[in-house]
Design brief:
By secondary structure, this protein is mainly alpha-helical. It has 9 helices and no strands.
């Protein structure tokens, strides 16, 4: 019975991807306006967290199912409390999934344009993605500045990917395997 409940919860989380993020932009902007969060970084953080959470739920639940229950039981027999079991058993085993979800969330946030454009309108709060688009709004596009900015913009995600590529591949593949 509990696996049916978990499966339906997982399906409900994944069903949120049926609605495109652009469809929710105006209602989300209106909610942030009501709460006085327009032109605050917290509005963008709320949007990105909302869109990254269903993927995180899916990867963590699938990856967690692959961890043998015997590890938990043997830690309990050895006298570990729930916090120790989490810190010393589950957290190290979930590292590949954490890297996969973290990389996905970072790339999602890094490449986000629509919500950054709607929520952060002043030049000091503008992200690099929005600033790049501002180059195209001028009468004469400064292609040399645009290309230099694009290279600098692409470097951090590339560096992070190459630093964690082994863990990321393991996290993505292990989460999709049924045990």
């Amino acid at each position: 019975w509990s696996s049916d409940v978990c499966s339906s919860d997982l399906n409900a989380a994944l069903m949120t991807y049926v609605i495109p993020a652009s469809f929710l932009a105006i209602p989300f902007y209106r909610i942030m306006q009501i709460y006085g969060l327009t032109n605050h970084l917290w509005a963008v953080i709320a949007a990105i967290t909302t869109f990254a959470t269903p993927y995180a739920i899916f990867i963590f639940s699938q990856y967690g199912k692959s961890i043998p229950m015997e590890l938990d039981e043997s830690a309990r027999i050895d006298g570990a409390n729930p916090l120790q079991i989490y810190l010393y058993v589950y957290l190290p085993l979930m590292a590949p999934a954490l890297v996969a979800v973290g990389t996905y969330a970072l790339l999602l946030a890094w490449n986000e344009y629509l919500y950054n454009f709607l929520m952060l309108s002043t030049p000091d709060s503008m992200t690099v993605a929005v600033a790049l688009a501002q180059f195209l709004n001028s009468d004469e596009s400064p292609w040399n500045l645009m290309m230099a900015t694009a290279i600098v913009y692409a470097l951090p995600p590339m560096m992070i990917y190459y630093m964690f590529r082994r863990n990321m591949a393991a996290g993505l593949t292990m989460g999709g395997v049924k045990g």
